[in-house]
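Dear colleagues,

As part of the handover before I leave the project, I'm documenting each prediction I ran so the next person doesn't have to rerun anything. This entry is a single chain, and its sequence is reproduced below.
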Amino acid sequence: MTSAPKIGQASSNGIYLLLLVSVVIAPVIFTWITTSPNNNGNFDRLLNAGKTYYDSGDAQKAINAFTEALLYKPSETDLLLNLANAYRLSNKPEQVIRFSNEALAIDHNLGAGHFLIGCAYLRLNQNKNAIQSLQQAYDIDNTIGAVGYLLGKAKLTAGNFEDAIFYLEEVATYEEGHLGAAYTWSQALMQAGQPDEAKAALELHQERIANKQMPDDQGAWENCVYTEVKIPFKLDQPLTTGIDIKFTDDTAKAFAGYAAHFAGPFGVIDFNHNGNNSLFVQTSTNTFRTLINTNGVFTPFGKEFQSITNAHYARCLVGDLNNDRFEDILMIGDQGSHAFRFATNGLARDMSRFSRLSTLKAIDAVIADIDFTGKLDLLAIQPDNAGLKVFRNLGSLYFKDISKTSGIPTQITGALKLVMDDWNNDDMLDIIIPRKDRAPFYLQKIRGAKHSQTNSLPTDTSVRAIATGDLNNDLRVDLVSLIGDEIQIHFNGIEERKSIKLTESNATDLKLFDYDNDGWLDIFSIGEGLVSYRNKGSDGFENTSIKVGLNTINETVSQLSFADIDRDGDSDLILATNNGLKYLRNDGGNKNLQLKVRLFGNRSNASGLGIQVEGVTGGLRFKRTAKTLPVEIGVGSNTMLNSLTARWFDLSLNNIDVEVKSDKTITLTELILPTGSCPYLYCWDGQKYRFVTDLLGASPLGLPIRENSYIDSDPNEIVWIGDETNFKPIDNNYRLQITEELREILYLDQAKLITVDVPIGMEVHPNTKLLPNGPYPAPTLIALNKYKPLQHAQRSDGLNVTSALVSNDDIWLSPVELREPQLRGLAKPYSVELGFGKIDTSKALALVMTGWLHFGGGMANISASHRSQLPYPFPVLEAQTSNGKWQKVDVGVGAPVGKTKTIVVDLENKLPSDLRKLRLSMAFEIHWNRIALMTKADIPKTTDLHAVSTDLHWHGYGKYENLPMHLPLTPIYSQTSDKPNWRITPSGWATRYGNVNKLINNKDNQLALIAAGDELTLDFDAKELPPKADATVRNFFLFISGWDKDADFHVSQGWTVEPLPWHGMNYQKYGYESRPKLDD
């Protein structure tokens, strides 16, 4: 037998901990000693990179960056403390002490240095040393709650109750937001023999933690100003005069003399995603057509499409409406609307009638993923005060009017325009509607709910137009309003407001874009002419219309769009005027650099519309919402971005050290990483913890299969762990690790080990599997003997797949074609015919199939439910008889529950006597490894073991093996990060760390609540097993009972731990049915 290091456990004096949804670490600005400019550049780059790594939880890369930075400034105390914090993040307390001491050797009065050393000693269980260091930190600054709290806890551990009470009472009294102080204070009072005072402190704790979230690991209790990485970020202001720019009217050349023949509204579209921006326009002959961009000249291309006579068209919307990686177009008009589907090289088809939008009459509209299903829906304003219309995109440019059921208030009078942006910075698109003679209407998107009207906009007067964008580069969306004879700018989160007097009082609309590429959004007003206001940062806005040559525009401008038409690295202007289209070439903007971004959505809509892009580099940070295409972002003179992030609906992944080249487009791809699925199971194989499979995939809580309809959970599962060759004892125990590495909460009721010794050649498999509905069979094991080997297998596309299915090996059978990634987990229908030769159907036969299922999740389920044409996805089994005809076999085939598992299909008395072949058909993304025909046998005696010891502790979020797509995503036990790739996990009470035996030994509704990032170690006494008989193989199984809940937007109550489930509950009423009083 071998031994392995014990799994670490963070200590806790409480019974429960609260989960933290997100921690926002505010940057601390400080001044560094300067050296040479070149060294400063490298130094700043390393510091910014180190902070980015630190904030993303990559401790080792942060250590590397800060260590290299030390070569430039080895005596910089803040940098030494940054390095100490990075080592704290990587849980290397000895190194924390080393570098904190180096900083203290330079300045002994650094509270952060003493505090970090105290934290390190606590992690080393050296309580006496910890008290000394924390006391010094407290004496330097006694206003930092984390210092007093940890010092009080350390005093409590040392048995110094009087001192512990003093420090903990102080924190509990003066820091009402501290969620642990009152509880630990009550413990100290109880230890000191003051039960009445302890009761009062505990009541205070219960009051404070109501509906709150608490840190769930030791490191989080340490978080304070001393654990923030200090970086030299100072937002550089724009140059006072800026660079020289002229907008040159090159209309005649760009439109070959036919500009007056074309009119707005128009759309900018890049057919082939190669940076060549073309146009889709209305013509003077009452048609629509494409103008393809050839070296900056627009040439008519392809077919013309008829428009509606005497219609006024208000908006041309561009986006990928069927997620086929080609942008499409909606033309919105007051007499009807049109839909055009585009393909390679700009070839278009009129889909207006098919789309069900031909009768839509509207004066404005936006496309956005309103219902979080990865498709672009449509929101429109009807003419004549008829209110709003909401259309759900069902795929393939097919829309359904859901105005009455969308949850969006549609009876709005006086609506002028539609604006969608994330006003409250929660990564969800809100709706802002300026109205005639009334204040703007603001609809906030609520997680897990519909858009709700609120009054949180900073303007309460009537406005003619609204634009949104981050104007002061603080990573928050600001509000720009056209009110009377001025433009008002409301900065989000601060009371500051700026006003700009209009030079033309008849402005009708506002646009924001960075015309000089300096990284600051400028303001344009359109109406009778075109006026530009350059953003000068803290110095306000300057009217630059004369300076840049826009004062010559005398026509009425109805539309302004910007895109790099001539591909020279700056955004040009395209105008729709009463005299036709105009093209104004940007001459000079490319003296600064421009970042071109293509968003490649997989779970989100394919165009990435509505997604926010954030960037940080030396002296510049920005946030841009992709409202229209293309996405072009000025970055000043910065050739490298330290960090570039696309805030997708599920994930937010940093790209580090992004090189900026104006002639190159950066593609930001939404990674297809699991965010919700199931807990993971690992076992000790004698050398390492081997990944086995996932658990409880058939027992999701609140997971919808369609709107207002949820999966009926099957909370009981048996999974095969392995046999004696790959599951070995360690310290005389069989050890399992159950981890929760996704954005979920695990409600674990029971876990026990089952062993069975079977003769060589016999197989034993569980009967548990994923079924479309209940009632579910009681979990058990089935013994099987080999019967007939697979002789021939052919997939529905004619491919011979016999070798892929004959045995469990490295060859797999996959679907012919998958659905688009927004419908992950689904495939286009496919089947496989199975030939086993002549079969005696009177035998107790069973089909034994090993494979894995790619889970979709709530977002994919809801999206699929909107498409009624999609086929039933679960596998169906058919039998071919001697006459060549196929008939359905009356069995519930089911599917593997998540990652690789074997399912058994009982065929006893189910097959026709003249059976020739079997056919398995499905539309799930299931990858099969082996399909065998066996006979059932009597199950040998089994032995159940309960865990002799359990330990709940922190684990982290695992990285994944680099495997082919036909294999399930496999986590690596030994490679984890302390920070997830997502921003939301269920919040609320979870079980305290330590022993949980009494919670999981029996199926009794006494639940261990295991949070995201946690791990449960289970040890089973190997000596309790009976001796193994000769000529047998010992197989190990885990029986588990419980539930799992994902934080998917569509999951009922997905953002909170509560309500708790129980056996016998009505899963359709989860969240709306009170949990009965149980003995738990």
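The first helix runs from residue 37 to 55. The CA atoms of residues 63 and 667 lie 29 Å apart.

All the best with the project,
I.
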